[in-house]
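A common beginner's mistake is to predict each chain separately and then try to dock the pieces by hand. The better habit, illustrated here, is to supply every component at once so that their relative placement is modeled jointly.
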Amino acid sequence: MPKVNGASLLRGLIGTAGLLAVLEAAGRLGAWDTERLPLVSTVLLRAGELLTDPEFLVSARSSLTTWALALLVTIAIAVPAGLLLGMVKPAEMAVRPLIEFLRPIPSVALIPLVILLYSETTHMRITVAVYAALWPVLINTIYGVRDVDPLAKETLRSFGFGPGSVAYRVVLPGAAPFIATGIRLAASVAIVLVVTSELIAGGIEGVGVYITIAQSGNRLDLMIGATILVGLFGILVNALLVAGENRLFRWHRARAGAAT
Amino acid sequence: MLELVDLSHTYGSYRAIDRVNLKVAQGEVVCIVGPSGCGKSTLLRSIAGLIKPTGGTVLLDGKPVAGSPENLAVVFQDYSRSLYPWMSALANVGLPLRRRGLDKKRRDAAAMAALEQVGLAGAAAKYPWEMSGGMQQRVSIARALAYQPKLLLMDEPFGSVDAQTREELEDLTLRVCAHHGMTILLITHDVDESVYVGDRVVVLSKAPGTVVGDLPVQLPGPRDQIHTRELEAFVRLRAEVGRLVRGMTPHRNTHGFGVETR
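With all components supplied together, the output reads:
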């Protein structure tokens, strides 16, 4: 888990602000036609305005719902499947070639197919996002389960606990830090895929749809503003999940720290 | 209370233990000592039901053991792997008590009492990784005590702590187990420890491990780290166990000549 401290955060902010200032100055000095590509300050202003724009907010809420549902479905499928495959070696061996075949298929390539299968756009978008977000959670869960110390499991077995209890009380908590990392990666992937499916397949609501409409109106300021907000949302989600992991899995970091 | 009849186990073509026969009476502290690779851990894991021995039977109170028996607890050498780092000391100790069908309040009370017995009442809220090795092994012992097993298996329980902590833990184990009237089977490679802790020392041969010696330890109690170890009887017994472990035939003359190698 990347550790963010005050100094590195400050430097990051300085770097970002410096780049934006250079771009702003270049635009004002006539490096490009600001009628076509707006100034940094204009874009940032639009991005701020979008946060109170009812039309954008309807789209944002729609995307957010799709994203959250996709993440929930991903967790509901990938965590139990990963636990099973991690604990039952023959099952993992049987499914492995299939996983290795399916995993590299870009989710975006499935969009035309999925459009034909679903009449409901939300279902279509969720399916596309889940397909891409599934893998990091599944793979991390499998490795997390494998990483659980056999002696930790045997200890509980020696007290007479059955396989179900061992799975619930030792394997699941022991693998939890890996699962959490998988979910954090999946959260980012799902954002990308939700917006992508909105851009490609269209629809009525969604940030991707909003960007497409802004494009047809030649509003680059709104397009870039909305894109920046999606990026900021991604950073926010990642930071929240990292903070949650650091808080919940102090034991894991303490142990990993002691080992290195 | 515990009886091993022709207990054997092979891993593929490797014979770890071969027809081990042993009877342990209620309340006895039996130390099993042997050279490394004599199948000590295989023996313990067979009794604990963690592996299914390929031959022979384990009888507990006259009944053959299938799976992990009730009323049995194990203390492993590797406390850092055997304790759960996501749980406090109190939660670690209380966890096995779920098997006893106690509610949370009673589990916590029993866990607290066990931690008090090992001198860790003040560290109940600490996590294993915040503790020293000796403290962690005390938590493991407390976990076994709280469970109140009739048979306590200990696999090199003091093998990973420093010498002083080791002596403290030996005395602690003897004290609290005598208090509870527990039967203990302690596995060690340390000849000195086996004589100090045991009422009886059972010596296993090199793999395939089999019983080559079964010596009663007649030392006055309560045992004391300094005085017990300087007793003539202790020194003599230790030498005898040492010879057995090294694969020499035991002899009882005091000259020390004519030792045969098996």
